[in-house]
């Protein structure tokens, strides 16, 4: 059985994951309109992964006999000055999410809720990967600056990203 406090915090995290999905879908739309189909693809995969993150917590609440409460998803930005600007926003957002996951883990530990800690440990590892990936693309974009061929090549590389549902990982 979930405590009221943990259930409320998990529901907040579902909202944050869905907001993340919304943010990356908006970035995908922005890149598609900007003639960068590879960047758009990468963000579209990110969008789907964030929905999986939300559903992982959703399903966990149900499994523990809790109540999922869906709240409104706040508005997101619709345009970015450059690919670097978008990926800097991505990294900054992922750092905020990492903080939220850490706070949730600390709450579960304080309440001796071992099942919630076990579920959250997947997210702890995932956030390391999320931040590392965003930082890697930022580093590449800083090297490329506004070199057209560099952007073209990175667009091709990001276009190769394929969505894999987390349950199948
Ligand atoms: Fe669900 Fe990108 O963290």
- Tell me the major beta sheet: none
Alpha carbon gyration radius: 17 Å
Helical run tally:
5
Total number of β-strand segments?
A: 0
- Average pLDDT confidence is 97
Structural class: mainly alpha
Give the overall shape, derived from the CA principal axes: elongated
Which small molecules are bound?
MU-OXO-diiron
Work out the helicity level: over 70%
Strand content: under 5%
Write the H/E string, N to C.
HHHHH
Low-confidence stretches: none
Rounded to the nearest angstrom, the distance between the terminal CA atoms is 27 Å
Please supply descriptive tags for the structure shown above.
single chain; 169 residues; mainly alpha; 5 helices; elongated; binds MU-OXO-diiron
Any chance you could write out the topology, listing elements then pairs?
Elements: H1 4-33, H2 37-63, H3 83-110, H4 114-144, H5 148-159
Helix pairs in contact: 1-2, 1-3, 2-5, 3-4
Describe this structure in words.
The chain is an all-alpha fold. It has helices at residues 4-33, 37-63, 83-110, 114-144, 148-159. The longest helix has 31 residues, at 114-144. The radius of gyration is 17 Å and the shape is elongated. The model has no long low-confidence stretch (mean pLDDT 97). It binds MU-OXO-diiron (FEO). MU-OXO-diiron (FEO) binds at residues 17, 20, 50, 53, 94, 97, 130.
């Amino acid at each position: 059985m979930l405590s009221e406090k943990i259930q409320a915090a998990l529901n907040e995290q579902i909202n944050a994951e869905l907001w993340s999905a919304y943010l990356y879908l908006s970035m995908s739309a922005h890149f598609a309109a900007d003639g960068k189909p590879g960047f758009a693809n990468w963000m579209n995969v990110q969008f789907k992964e964030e929905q999986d993150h939300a559903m992982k917590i959703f399903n966990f609440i149900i499994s523990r006999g809790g109540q999922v409460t869906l709240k409104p998803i706040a508005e997101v930005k619709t345009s970015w000055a450059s690919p670097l600007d978008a990926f800097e926003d991505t990294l900054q957002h992922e750092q905020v999410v990492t903080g939220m996951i850490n706070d949730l883990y600390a709450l579960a530990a304080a309440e001796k809720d071992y099942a919630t800690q076990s579920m959250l440990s997947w997210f702890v590892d995932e956030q390391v990967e999320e931040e590392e990936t965003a930082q890697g693309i930022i580093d590449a974009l800083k090297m490329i600056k506004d070199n057209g061929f560099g952007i073209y090549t990175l667009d091709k590389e990001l276009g190769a990203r394929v969505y894999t549902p987390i349950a199948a990982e």
